[in-house]
Write a structure and sequence with these properties.
The chain has about 280 residues and is an alpha+beta fold. The chain is about 20% helix and about 35% strand. It has three domains: about 110 residues, Nucleoside Triphosphate Pyrophosphohydrolase (Alpha-Beta Complex), CATH 3.90.79.10; about 30 residues, no CATH class; about 130 residues, Nucleoside Triphosphate Pyrophosphohydrolase (Alpha-Beta Complex). The protein starts with 5 loop residues before the first strand and ends with a helix.
Length: about 280
């Protein structure tokens, strides 16, 4: 998350007087204001005056000294004036990194809360944990924490300089003409390195070596943490899995197809790898 002047926290007041920063969702869309630069901003609202039920909100922390909350509004709720509803993906693409990070965190926490009102073992109601951001079964005392799903992302490359190539893929229903990198979820009992090699082999049929960590990105669709690696091609012919991919092929770094938007870590990984290959 882009920190700026944001101080994260999971314990805070259930209700405060005065203005608070709000991630207000109605369904899957978020209420935003527009700044002077036209970028979407998280609204600062007087919770009491707007009748916001902060006792049922997820506390996020403090932004520029103001308490931050994530809250789901019911479909029939009267919306505060001067705001617009914006999809979370659209917010991410518009370029306000801090607002996107806070809204993504709020969305994941609210979905976790919605889907963990009852114990998955005995069916009893859950209650907030006394110390952690978690809920606890009132009967069998099982504690449920927000779930994070680790995703591995792999950009396979070969050659250097002008002969450098990237192995890129297309999934069905992806934007027309756009390609990206191999990605998949880590399975139970699997290391990150094992997942990386398995996903590449399963999806495109090649072997890799020398995995190189690039970075990570929280992704709230629905609750992922993406960990991005580049890796050298070690052998094998490209054979895309038809159940997963529409196409996979090698592209020269000087003749690439349309790529993901710069906000995505996949694009950042591609740009970094191209720069390294050109400098080799």
């Amino acid at each position: 998350m882009t920190q700026g002047s944001f101080v994260p926290g999971h314990r805070g007041p259930a209700f405060v007087a005065g203005e608070v920063v709000c991630c207000l969702f109605q369904g899957s869309r978020l209420l935003v204001a527009r700044g002077a630069d036209g970028l979407p901003q998280l609204p600062q609202l007087d919770a009491a005056a707007c009748g916001l039920p902060l006792k049922s909100a997820q506390y996020l922390g403090r932004l520029e000294g103001r308490h931050c909350y994530g809250l789901h509004l019911p479909p029939q709720a009267k919306l505060p004036g001067g705001l617009e509803l914006l999809g979370l993906r659209a917010l991410i693409l518009e370029g306000n990194d801090l607002a996107s990070a806070l809204a993504g965190q709020a969305f994941q926490l609210l979905e976790w809360e919605r889907t963990h009102r009852f114990c998955g073992s005995c069916g009893a109601p859950t209650t907030p944990h006394a110390a952690d951001r978690a809920v606890e079964c009132a009967e069998c005392r099982i504690v449920y924490y927000p779930r994070i799903s680790p995703v591995m992302m792999a950009l396979v490359h070969r050659g250097n300089g002008a002969s450098g190539e990237l192995l890129l893929t297309r999934k069905p229903n992806y934007a027309p003409g756009r390609y990206t990198v191999v990605a998949g979820f880590v399975e139970a009992g699997e290391s990150l390195e094992q997942c990386l090699a398995r996903e590449v082999k399963e999806e495109v049929g090649v072997d890799i070596r020398e995995p190189r960590y690039f970075g990570s990105q929280p992704w709230p669709f629905p609750n992922s943490l993406v960990m991005a690696f580049s890796a050298e091609w070690a052998g094998g012919e490209v054979d895309p899995d038809p159940a997963e991919l529409e196409d996979a092929q090698w592209f020269s770094i000087d003749a690439l197809p349309e790529l993901p938007e710069p906000v995505h870590i996949s694009r950042q990984l591609i740009d970094d790898t191209i720069a390294r290959l050109r400098g080799s």
